[in-house]
Amino acid sequence: MSKPPSRPNLTLQFCFNQTALRDFLRASRGLIDDSIVQNLNALMTPSRKPWDPASTAERQIRPVERRPTDPQACQSFKDDILFRSWQTRSDILNYCARVALDPSDPDLALKEVESAMERERVVNERLDPYSGRFFPRETRTEILASVIRNERSVEGIIRSRTWALVNERCGDAGVGWEDALNKWRTDQEAHR
């Protein structure tokens, strides 16, 4: 069964290095969420019924019965692997979102100077119709905020898909992934 990648050091450099941030999130999703079927298959106990050669005499469209997954193994997988991985990714996205709110971004002053210079510029659109265009440069915190928004959207989609498969294999508890993760978080806090 896959183990989630180790948690990176949360630093400003890590957040502003989009490649490192996205690579970590991609690797974590790849090991846990993208391979959820294989991870859940690893939880299943081997067949207790010996193989019957007569079972190949007729074609079966779908399995007659699905082997049940051990409830204890499912809960252990959710608690030790799945939720820990999700929590690590949430912590990283929350930290980087706080970094993106930094009001002391050095690019912000440069952006304000460029905007002031653009307001003072005289534009004759009859001579050059494209001279009136101004595309202000995005600050690194604005870029980071955009990356975080996109990654949170991806997380929501992936977690919904993963949770649907977990519920299918481990038994539908009738609880959404957000509620299950929040319950796990409160249980973790209680055990500290």
TrEMBL record:
Q: What is this protein called?
A: Caffeine-induced death protein 2
Q: Which PANTHER family match?
A: COILED-COIL DOMAIN-CONTAINING PROTEIN 58 (PTHR31905), PROTEIN MIX23 (PTHR31905:SF2)
Give the region (Disordered) as residue ranges. 48-71
Q: Which organism is it from?
A: Lepraria finkii
Q: Which family does it belong to?
A: Belongs to the MIX23 family.
Task: Please give one Pfam family short name.
Answer: MIX23
Compositional bias (Basic and acidic residues): 59-69
InterPro entries (alphabetical): MIX23 (IPR019171), MIX23_fungal (IPR016805)
